[in-house]
Design a protein that fits this description.
This protein is an alpha+beta fold. The protein has helices at about 5-10, 10-15, 40-60, 70-75, 100-125, 130-150, 165-175, 180, 195-200, 225-245, 270-275, 280-310; strands spanning about 190, 210, 215-220, 255-260, 265-270. Helix 3 runs parallel beside helix 5 (about 100-125), helix 3 packs across helix 7 (about 165-175) and helix 6 packs across helix 7 (about 165-175). The longest helix has about 30 residues, at about 280-310. About 35% of the residues are buried.
Length: about 300
């Protein structure tokens, strides 16, 4: 169960929809950067990486987590010489594209090592040139390709390649990011998770916490906010509040927001509109109670399945 699947459940959706922001969901800003390919999901993930790298360079005090792509190599072929869970990503692929798991793992590790070196050099540069930025965007694409191994157990046979049109797309979006509105001068957390609280929904992470702003990046051509996107922000906010109960050092969140990367637009929302809603306390309590119930149901099904297997 993921946060997305949890908030998409009918009873959860029905419960929380009264908290969706009122008024128009149109952002009222024109599209500035058109998509150059149909690789929408990959480009979105690659932009997340590239923007975080740029934030690291501009704000060296930012707290940084390990990349999802770093775990990809061991998902394919562990250091002890075993295929993890029998994950043969290129099984059934065109023979000319086939690579054994151990070779994919080796190449994945190489991508991560090279990307880390490139990010380190980039963050030390006060004025990165076009070559450095192009290379970094290409690495962001390769890392995005590796992310899919962890999140979905699949991999593009051409995972080591970065199409020039996607590189250009990423760099144009980066050039219109409103950094002045985005970066807090004291506290930034890149790709924040929610500690033990996130385990209630199978793990969850946002894109950025900057000061009191919890933010998600959206690489979409749409000029409006979808209900599921607003519900996801609410889910992040509730998880952060729960984790903060056991870790009071965490910054209190006063705003949530969406960065529309293709529009160069930052939308923010004051969380008081949630917390001052008369139904908020009951909804917050119900949210976590329902997550606990689902986890218990899932655990019971797994235990019953394992018991049945032992009998056979």
């Amino acid at each position: 169960m993921s946060l997305t699947s949890f908030i998409g459940m009918k009873d959860v959706n029905d419960k929380i929809k009264c908290l969706r922001p009122k008024g128009s969901r149109k952002i009222g800003v024109p599209l500035r950067i058109e998509s150059r390919s149909d690789r929408y999901s990959m480009v979105g993930t690659a932009f997340d990486y590239l923007l975080r790298f740029e934030i690291q360079r501009r704000a060296p005090y930012a707290a940084v987590r390990d990349w999802v792509a770093e775990t990809a190599a061991n998902r394919i072929f562990r250091d002890d010489g075993h295929v993890s869970g029998g994950l043969d990503l290129f099984h059934g692929a065109d023979p000319k594209d086939y690579l054994p798991p151990e070779e994919i793992s080796k190449r994945a590790k190489h991508i991560v090592e090279k990307a880390k070196a490139a990010v380190t050099a980039f963050c030390k540069s006060k004025s990165p040139d076009n070559t450095m930025r192009n290379d970094l965007a290409a690495y962001a694409i390769c890392l995005a390709n590796l992310d899919v191994i962890v999140r979905a157990g699949v991999l593009d046979p051409h995972f080591e390649c970065a199409d020039p049109e996607d590189v250009e797309d990423l760099l144009e979006m980066l050039s219109i990011v409103p950094f002045g509105d985005l970066l807090d001068k004291k506290s930034i957390i890149l790709n924040p998770a929610f500690g033990d609280a996130s385990l209630l929904v199978g793990g969850a992470d946002a894109d950025l916490v900057s000061g009191d702003l919890l933010l998600d990046f959206k690489v979409t051509k749409k000029d409006s906010m979808e209900p599921k996107t607003l519900d996801q922000l609410l889910g992040y906010f509730l998880l952060w509040r729960k984790e903060r109960l056991s870790n009071p050092a965490l910054q209190e969140i006063g705003r949530v927001g969406l960065l529309f990367a293709r529009h160069g637009y930052l939308w923010t929302f004051d969380v008081k509109e949630w917390t001052e809603h008369p139904e908020f306390p009951e909804i917050e309590q119900w949210f976590f109670k329902r997550a606990d119930e689902l986890n218990s149901e899932i655990a019971a099904r797994i235990a019953a399945s394992q018991k049945a297997l032992r009998r056979t």
